[in-house]
Amino acid sequence: MARQKEPQVREFPNGFLWGAATSHFQIEGYSREMQARLSDWSRWIFEPTRILDGTTAEQACDFVNRYVDDIELLDSLKLNAFRISLNWPALMQEAPGSSIQLDKEAMEYYRRVLQTLKDKGITTFVTLFHFCLPSWLADRGGWLSRDTAHEFSRFTAEIADSLGDLIDYWLTINEPMAYVYQSYVSGQWTPGLKNDYIAAFTALRHILDGHARAYTAIKSRLPNAPVSFTNHWRPFFPENPINPLDHWVAYLRDQVFNQIFPKSIKTGRLEFPAPLGFYRRINELEGEIENLKDSMDYLGVNYYTRELSRFKMALPLDIFGETSPTIHFPTNALGWEIYPQGLYHVLTDAIRPYLNGPDGKPREVFVTENGYADVFDSKLSEGDWSLDDHKRVNFLISHLEALHDAIKAGVNVRGYLHWSLIDNFEWAEGLSPRFGLIRVSYPNQSRMLRKSASIYAQIAAKNSIFPDLINAAQTIDEQG
Ligand code: FCB
Fold first, then answer.
1. Which residue among 262, 277, 400, 428 is least crowded, i.e. fewest CB within 10 A of its CB?
2. CATH assignment at residue 429
């Protein structure tokens, strides 16, 4: 993927945060016994055929035991921000007699992780819900039950009380629409329902409610804490730019997948675009949600790729739309088109309605995830496989250029968290997709820096992208 632009020095604003993002289930690892009783995902991974490459997250990167060394690596790369998620299932456990209590040991573990980061001057971003539910809640219907929203706020209040002093930026929910889509429509994630839009939208309503309650719980304890959620932004474009029906499908997908969550927060109401809102059972889910309005202090943008959409008469259940198989640009190893212009579009255009409301907030934007996957067998250990990751280097630089263009266009982007620091467990795809700046050899848990890690470290150290670096990246790209 050759860049077209002439290399130039691109300086980022003072105080820009350079970091990496992770989530607990994807990196931490737990013993099989703990896994089996803790969360919906820890049961799901042991069901046959659920995980494409047959691996599990049982051990993952063993971050629970290796966090000191991994944070050392993060620091050695001059990164000054780190995003983790909290293991709600481990933190809020069902005690005998079925009362739910904060698990002191799990909480102490997170205090140690966060303290290790703070001791190094690293800014902490903490996600409260990153796709995993306590199994006792999953058994009661998970997000299909309104009770989960109450439990989420109870958990959040405990965290604000016990870890609040160590958390710089709060994120309530990670990618709510990606979550409901995969859990209730594609069926690739637990509980594995397929095309159940009523379930998906019911869960959406309860997640919005849970977000609002969590926001309120944090703010009542820590009024100045910046709180938001992460939205997975995926620009949808019509496959055929002159076909109005393709335009309609792309518009509808954009409204439902990208806009509905931030829009509901902006207005305080859940509303579905036509024709969805015409269906009685969907219409019944619409309406105001208490304390939801403006419960967003900054914007968390996750961006990976775009999608082309097209009209298909034969698919009424999918609102007459499908994803086009047409690909115009190179892809990552999971088939996701590499489209840095999409990040520019999201930052300068798609998120505009949600910035600078009447009270001036949200003012700040953070890219809370963005990254590139290649695929290598999880059994590989020694050797130099995957270390010369010139495609990730190019992905990184081209997306940072797009981000810088957005800053020049006036968007207040304050930081970039690359997904991810280390290779990790990629949900239904398992351990073989590799998203790390740092390679993990799963059989012996060794860590090796990839080329991208050293390039990213140079960018972070200089707070800029500079011609020598771009030329070096260009050269390795041509060789590759
Ligand atoms: C995002 C998820 C994250 C990771 C990346 C690749 O959708 O938030 O957990 O799996 O994709």
1. 277
2. 3.20.20.80
